[in-house]
Specification:
mainly beta; four-stranded parallel sheet; 450 residues; binds 2-acetamido-2-deoxy-beta-D-glucopyranose; 5 helices; Leucine-rich repeat, LRR (right-handed beta-alpha superhelix); elongated; 20% strand
Length: 450
């Protein structure tokens, strides 16, 4: 999910308030902003926002009459303001986007714009990413976030790669489609690429390995096919890879083991096949490993027990066979372990219950057998969720078990959620929703420029 980055900006000098009409910008006013930029801003916002009184109410958006979501920076010599950030979204009190909202070419009249962030803005009339807008002309743009815009559709134009200043490209939760352009590797300054929750198809281009600055890659919830490109192994700065909920096939590339900074690897809900490459044991920083719902169809590799930093490990529905490796008892930082819906067998060692941080353990629907001997402290730990249902050979000694009949699933069942993973708060997100309270009467303010 996109965040709307906050760039530091020179905060506003307060000048004496004064009424001014737009078509009458004097020399003194030019101190505020160049006329071309000024008009470009009003025009760009005019094509987005519902409230036509905006320019009258905010003739000096950088100084006397600041506007939430717009930030300016001052250039010293000569002293003049430039718009550096435009943000529209339900999180701040702006007028809503109008139903005919569109992306105006006038944005190119803002040569100092570093951040463009538009959330829940394009909801009814179709809007696309025009190559005339999203190309080299956007010379200062560092942060482009267009998110939760259901009527933003069409392809990503290859020209987007010409915005070489881009550091964040977030196009999450729109209706974009087509293939991810291979030209995207031209964005060598890009640190964050989030194309999640769209309708992208085709394969992930190998060229992605050229984006050397990338730290976050989120392509989840699309219809991407083909293999996970091994070129990802070249992106030494990568911290998070989320390719979940696609149609990816083939093996997990062993090159991923080179990613020394990787904290999160989510390849869940694909059709990847096993085995899990042993090179992954080199991922020393890894905290989240989510592979559930793939066709791994092997035993659980012992080396996973070497990933000492693991917090969350999910191997549900992977067709796994054989026992839980004893190496798992080293995973002292593990808080959630999901092994449900596999064909795992053998006994459930009491050692599993001694992992100090483990509070979610799902072993349901396997072929575990013998007596379940998890320590009493573990069973009774507050907030813990243990699920051992659907293991026919497993017998339960403790009274506490038999009281709960066949199920130890406690207390809430989150299986109805779309993505029942146990991320930390900052990793999950709720999508911004269009808030009805921002709806204003429809008026037209462009006439002011006539
Ligand atoms: C990737 O995007 C999806 C959908 O926008 C979001 O739910 C998920 O948390 C993101 N993944 C990471 C690792 O941030
Ligand atoms: C523009 O400013 C001039 C002098 O300051 C004034 O005479 C004129 O009426 C103004 N025009 C408008 C349209 O406000
Ligand atoms: C386990 O978690 C603790 C506390 O968050 C952290 O200091 C430690 O480095 C982690 N251990 C490993 C092996 O990553
Ligand atoms: C897990 O396996 C059980 C038994 O085979 C099946 O009823 C259930 O639908 C599976 N759950 C999921 C989420 O696949
Ligand atoms: C576990 O299953 C494998 C076959 O997948 C079998 O060879 C092995 O004997 C079983 N072990 C136990 C303890 O049942
Ligand atoms: C364990 O996994 C099963 C099957 O995937 C799921 O239905 C159940 O809700 C999970 N239990 C808990 C406690 O999360």
């Amino acid at each position: 999910m996109c965040s709307s980055g906050s760039l530091s900006s020179v905060r506003l000098l307060v000048l004496a308030a004064r009424v001014m009409s737009l078509e009458n910008i004097t020399d003194e006013d030019a101190m505020e902003m160049e006329q071309k930029e000024h008009l470009g801003l009003f025009d760009a916002l005019g094509s987005l926002l519902e409230d036509p009184t905006w320019p009258q109410m905010h003739p000096k958006p950088c100084t006397d009459t600041p506007w939430p979501g717009i930030e300016c920076e001052i250039e010293r010599d000569p002293p003049i303001f430039h718009v550096t950030r435009i943000h529209i979204g339900p999180d701040i009190l702006t007028p809503p986007c109008k139903t005919s909202a569109k992306l105006s070419q006038s944005l190119l009249k803002l040569p100092y714009l570093k951040t463009l962030s538009l959330f829940s803005c394009f909801t009814s009339s179709p809007v696309s990413l025009s190559p005339f807008l999203f190309g080299s002309a956007f010379s200062s743009l560092e942060h482009l976030s267009l998110g939760s815009n259901p009527s933003l559709s069409g392809d990503i134009p290859p020209s987007i790669a010409e915005i070489v200043s881009l550091r964040v490209l977030c196009l999450s939760q729109n209706s974009l489609q087509g293939e991810i352009p291979k030209e995207i590797n031209g964005l060598f300054n890009l640190e964050e690429l989030d194309l999640s929750y769209n309708f992208f198809s085709g394969s992930i281009p190998q060229e992605i390995g050229g984006m050397k600055s990338l730290t976050i890659l989120n392509l989840s919830w699309n219809s991407l096919k083909g293999e996970v490109p091994c070129s990802l192994g070249q992106l030494q700065l990568l911290q998070k890879i989320d390719l979940s909920s696609n149609k990816l096939q083939g093996r997990i590339p062993s090159d991923l083991g080179h990613l020394k900074s990787l904290v999160l690897l989510d390849l869940s809900h694909n059709t990847l096949s096993g085995p899990i490459p042993e090179t992954l044991s080199g991922l020393e920083q890894l905290q989240y490993l989510m592979l559930e719902d793939n066709s791994i169809n092997t035993g659980i590799p012992i080396f996973i027990g070497a990933l000492m930093g693991l917090n969350v490990l999910s191997l549900s529905r992977c067709g796994l066979v054989g026992p839980i490796p004893t190496s798992f008892f080293n995973l002292k930082n593990l808080t959630a372990l999901s092994l449900d819906n596999n064909s795992l067998n053998g006994t459930v060692s009491p050692n599993l219950g001694t992992l100090p941080n483990l509070d979610q353990l799902n072993l349901s629907h396997n072929q575990f057998s013998g007596e379940l001997q998890l320590p009493e402290e573990f069973i009774e730990k507050p907030g813990k969720r243990l699920d051992v249902r659907g293991n026919n050979g497993l017998c339960k000694k403790h009274q506490i078990y038999s009281n709960k009949k066949s199920s130890f699933s406690l207390p809430a069942d989150d299986s109805k959620k779309m993505k029942p993973v146990w991320y930390e708060g900052d990793m999950s997100s709720s999508s911004p929703k269009f808030d009805q309270k921002f709806v204003f009467p429809c008026l037209f303010f462009l006439v002011l420029f006539a």
